Amino acid sequence: MSRPISALTIAGSDSGGGAGIQADLKTFAAHGVHGLSAIAALTAQHTRGVTAVHVPPVAFLRAQVDACFEDFDIGAVKLGMLASAEVIHAVADALQAHRPPHVVLDPVMVATSGARLLEADALDALRTRLLPMATVLTPNTPEAELLLGRKITDGAAADEAAQALRALGAGSVLLKGGHLDEGDRVVDRYADATTSTRWQQPRMDVDGHGTGCTLASAIAANLCLGHSPVDACAAAIAYVHDALLRGYAPGRGAVRVLDHF
Ligand code: PLP
């Protein structure tokens, strides 16, 4: 019997179970894809915020990544919270050594709660080392602004930003529109070398947690299943929308986590 394809997440752990590695593994499972994880950072976290962050030694992160590549057929790698420039360089070195077919880069910087998940001096390393390896880059508007060094104030600026991010070296870009005010709808913009498209949905009045992590890992799962980047993005957007509609608030905070199944 041939081995199934696995997806690997290299990201942060959320002790509250709503985002990060925990969301990624649930997403992989919901897509019928075997999930692997290399934990780049640990957060002590609940539905009201992040109370502490611990970054294990990068040699141990590399050992986790190497162990995964030594034994599994990895169809796609999802990158989430990487915490520091040192971690980013270690991940870039590991990906250069193992050359996975696809990389989905969620350039996690600041949590919705306001907690910093990437040190300020790490932006350059993210832009120069990881962005060119990405099959799909999935920034939200504030992350795209930091990567480009300019404000995105309206839909036309967002269209331009998606192209400009691709010009920095990503194979394709899914610029998430949730933070941009475009009336009662949310517009996600996609651009690759030959296609640009957008998906619109009515804005949902919910305080969701783990949506970005889930979107990126759903794209990775769909790439593992053989979908093209644009089809993987379309399927992942629909998956997150449905999972958020069914979402629930498991803690004392108002935030809702997704129902992945
Ligand atoms: N915790 C971890 C480990 C994460 O990776 C992320 C986002 O990527 C978050 C928290 C923040 O999630 P949100 O902004 O959806 O609340």
Task: Provide structural commentary.
With 261 residues, this protein is α/β, with parallel strands linked by helices. It has a single domain, classed as UDP-N-acetylmuramoyl-L-alanine:D-glutamate ligase, CATH 3.40.1190. Helix content is 38%, strand content 24%. The protein is built from 8 helices and 11 strands. The chain has helices at residues 20-30, 58-71, 85-98, 123-130, 141-148, 155-167, 211-224, 229-245, and strands spanning 6-14, 34-46, 49-54, 74-79, 103-105, 136-137, 172-175, 185-192, 196-202, 208-209, 256-257. The strands form 3 sheets. A 6-stranded mixed β-sheet has the order 3-2-1-4-5-6. It has a 3-stranded antiparallel β-sheet with strand order 7-8-9, with helices on both faces. A two-stranded parallel sheet has the order 10-11. Helix 1 (20-30) links the parallel strand 1 and strand 2 (34-46). Helix 2 (58-71) runs parallel beside helix 3. It is globular, with a radius of gyration of 17 Å. The two termini are 27 Å apart. The mean pLDDT is 96. The chain binds pyridoxal-5'-phosphate. Pyridoxal-5'-phosphate (PLP) is lined by residues 11-12, 14, 19-20, 43, 45, 80-81, 108, 111-113, 117, 209-213. Residues 11-12, 14, 19-20, 43, 45, 80-81, 108, 111-113, 117, 209-213 line the site of pyridoxal-5'-phosphate. Pathway: Cofactor biosynthesis; thiamine diphosphate biosynthesis. It comes from Luteimonas lutimaris. GO terms for molecular function: kinase activity. This is hydroxymethylpyrimidine kinase. Its EC number is 2.7.1.49.
